[in-house]
Amino acid sequence: MTGDLGPAVDGPRSVHRKILDDIIAGSNDYAPYLRAIDTPAITDWDENGVDAEWIVKATTHHSGGAVFGGYTALLADRFAGLAVFPRMSNGETFRTADLRVTFVRPITAGSVSIRGEIVSKSAHVAHTRVEFRADDGSVLATAEATQIIVPFRRPTPTLGTTDDERTEDVG
Quick one: pLDDT at residue 148? Predict the structure, then answer.
């Protein structure tokens, strides 16, 4: 289902497109928490979304031998958000307002292709879809998300802390 994708971002490259390129190049460190939770990086992006290849690790498995559903949901949220990047302007960011994950088959091992795609975008709302596919092309899980587009504002420091105190344990 394809809706109104919103305008392509013309002119100078948006900061969001630069972030996508930096992630692919391995030089982007804008979200250090992603290293801690070991999320796969995107391998490609286009006007309509992002692609990634996820090598499933046993460290993401629950005792039944499949990937913990919460980890799959985390990846769905990550790639649903990145799917909006090619259509965002400088000065915009987003917040996930709704995320719905459907687990079709257990994810157990191997390589999983992830595609996050923008379905529609208005000035204030974006709808995205994420698919997780096995090597044979079969669908393992899908997700749909709603992103609320908001102006980017730097966070206000917490009373009594400095920037150094807030970031020293992030690395």
Answer: 94
